[in-house]
Queue: 3 jobs
Job 1
Amino acid sequence: MTWTVLGTGPAAPAAGQPRAEPSCNYLDDSARPVVRERPPDAQPRGAVPQVQCLIKTYSNLVDPPAVDGILGPRTRAAIRAVQRCNRVSEATGVLVGPATWEVLYAPMPNCARPRPS
């Protein structure tokens, strides 16, 4: 099964659907825990590398963060860039919540990585 967002490239399935990207398997696709601003080292297990992998796989960022599990300045900047492009925001103190998970798995067409030719 192939997933596309208006012809722009692969898009991940909704929570509970079959896995779209086998390399982003740090969390189950239905697990979307809240990633908080502080403390950066006390995040839900697997959440940060999942975010990094989804950014690298689906976003149109030219220089995405490494998938290293570290919630550093580069990952934070990438998350904010994805949020800006997709016009979403989270509650104060929340870096990645429901709205951001949704666009990480299925970005708006102008924010998605183009389909390879």
Job 2
Amino acid sequence: MEQKKNLCAQVPISLHAQVCEAREAAGQTTSEYITNLLIEYYNLKKNGGTAKIEKRQYPPRMTPQLQKEVIRFECCREQFAFLRENSISTQEDMTAFQARTEDAISGLMKQRTILNVRKKKRRAVYDALADVEALAEARRLYDEGLSGMEAEAARYAEASALLDGCGIPRDRLAAEKAELYRQLAELNRSIRAERRKLAMCKEVMEKVPNMKRSIENLEIKEVLHNEHRRR
């Protein structure tokens, strides 16, 4: 992919508003819209100004009511997929699933607590590792006689002394830190995923009364319709 560079320009407010409106209609970011606009302009210029720029075809805008219905449909589809994937078809299934999910979250939280305790115990040497890496260049410049690097050089020396005195090789510490942070990140992702499941359970349960009423209304309408046909 070709490298990119920032392009800034002051334009009249009226032109800015026109660009923003066209960009929103195109469903593009400002960067994408300006890039495409400039490409079209230079293609036109390269062809001697004789080529016509094709008129963009934008999809019709949805009304607020239609947008609301689309959002509601997507929400219902997501909830249906959730119920199907987890084999939930009764109230008992939902209650059991919620209990399992809460137990899973509790277990994950305990694991995270253990790792955070380990992280806290190693915080000083982990911070020293970060300082040594971040300040290595400053220490090199200080050793070469560059002024203004005294504070950074002092921090580097302090961190280096701490690492040398901890009795653990730096490469081993670095590997341990990376693995600990990886495990914490994975646990946090798992906890968020389980919490999303609980939130989905709550959303579904809140809609159950309305769903029951809708089904009952449909059944009543069907009975009335059948009676009318028999007459």
Job 3
Amino acid sequence: MAHGHDTSFVQSLVDRAEPDTAWKRLSEDRAQNQEHNRLAFQVATKVLTYLSDQGRTKTWLANQMGVTPQHIGKILKGRQNMTLETIGKLAEATGLTLLEVPEGNAYTAPVFRATVFEGLVPDLRSIFGGTAVERDADCLEFAY
């Protein structure tokens, strides 16, 4: 025994220890779900801003949605994988638009967004054809 420690006991713990790989799995998961994480963060930010502006609490929101405050906490951290049902309940409770799906069942053609430089609008229209929709002073969208 050295300094009151049983070295064989410590060695047996070291021998049975497993490497901590949870951080690696978490990092890989975040990389694979980057778009989902961005959207979840946007929803969380929008709901948190609403709660703050309205002087409401997470407990109030939990009661409105029929879930626990702990569940709301996970959602508002922006890391909870939300179902359409959850997003619908959030929207209903807050009156916020959190998800938009274009009306109708027709396929929407891809849109090309182009920064417009003076004098290039006619060239862009001839290259891409289709309909150009001016979104703002610097941007046109071409459906093709």
